Amino acid sequence: MTRRPAHDGGARRQTGREAGTRTYPRALPIVPVRARGLTVEGADGRRYLDCLSGGGTLPLGHNHPVVLEAIRTVLDSGAPLHAPDLASPVRDAFVDELLGTLPPALARHARVRFCGPGEADAVATAVTLVRAATGRTGIVRYAEGMSDAALTGVGADLGTDTGPDAGPRARPAGVLLAPVSEEGVVPVPDDRTRRVRRLTAERSVPLIADETGTGVGRTGAYWAVDHAGIVPEVMVLSKAVGGSLPLSVVVHHEDLAPARRGSRPGAFSGNHLALAAGTATLAHVRAHRLAAHADALGSGMLRRLRELAAAHPCVGAVRGRGLMLGIEFVGAGGAGAHAPGVAAAVQRACLRRGLIVDAGGRPAHVVRLLPPLTTTEEQAAAVLDRLADAVESVARGGSGPASPEPRPR
Known about the structure:
- By secondary structure, the protein is of the alpha/beta class.
- It has helices at about 10-15, 25, 55, 65-75, 90-100, 105, 120-135, 150-155, 190-200, 270-285, 290-310, 340-350, 375-395; strands spanning about 30-35, 40, 45-50, 110-115, 140, 175, 180, 185, 205-210, 235, 250-255, 315-320, 325-330, 355, 360, 365-370.
- It folds into 2 domains: about 10-65 and about 290-395, Aspartate Aminotransferase, domain 1 (Alpha-Beta Complex); about 65-285, Aspartate Aminotransferase, domain 2.
- Helix 12 packs across helix 13 (about 375-395).
- The model is unreliable at about 160-170 and about 400-409 (pLDDT under 50).
- Its cofactor is pyridoxal 5'-phosphate.
- It holds the Pfam family Aminotran_3.
């Protein structure tokens, strides 16, 4: 009896066996079987340029040689693949490389805490940390490019008088700041970031920088807080920090260390494959100045995206930082509410042209581009050619002819 390939009908079987809440399988009906760098090959033999990058977990793209070599070295060494919170050469190398990338003022007083592998685990760990350290419970979330009025509200929550009759409110345990909102790709302006830092420092409220999606060079600086030149008390790291494997870390100032010891480690806080992949990725981004490359390449891509916006009324704001880019789609003629239907149509049209992009925002009206930091200018041009063709096709009300499939690089 001939056995069918493992990928034969995989997308169809997934629909019948897995929960239907996942959005990627519905928007991207691809069964990937091979991948390298920016290129993914599906089971149907088609090749795609992948600007999703695993939601930002692949800063070096798919199967980068330094990551594969780091993983093979651990596998061949005979070391345990998993040793929760126990000292090991692999763990020590990761912490050493990580500390070398942090803002020096934090690195000199830093403590590193491993937690569950997901980004939500890291955020929860950071919140628990500042609550225990301050004895307070409230958390102020600052994100989505808050307005001046909203910033005043944050100041009020931190104990700032907002008027002649307004007394100070109770201080929160911490302020959680995302330098760039991932859903809609909305950067917080640097002056706002510095103002929040100043408010929190004046009132001894720990500032938590959520770098789960922005760290390791993604925004054109090694850490997104570097753009504003601030030093938070806590940094939440995930996605790219594991070099494609699940890993989350909380880095915090030593003054926030709990007085009572003995908390149990997370079940997956010591995975040696993720630590090795993370070390190799952090070092490669640093040594090859990939953050600066992302800054320069992203600036060029933004310029061309703004030209696209000027030519098509359905394209609203174009924004982003480094290689974290977003194209907002609006109603007919450029007026009215956000248009998630247009963004979804553009995503489908991109896929037909051999380009994988994401759709985010609330509602999902933003097409997101997260190409690997290793993307070349030639590859970026190919990405933008296919995106422009997709937008023009949707603006005309059709799918248009598909562009030639991208070849592997």
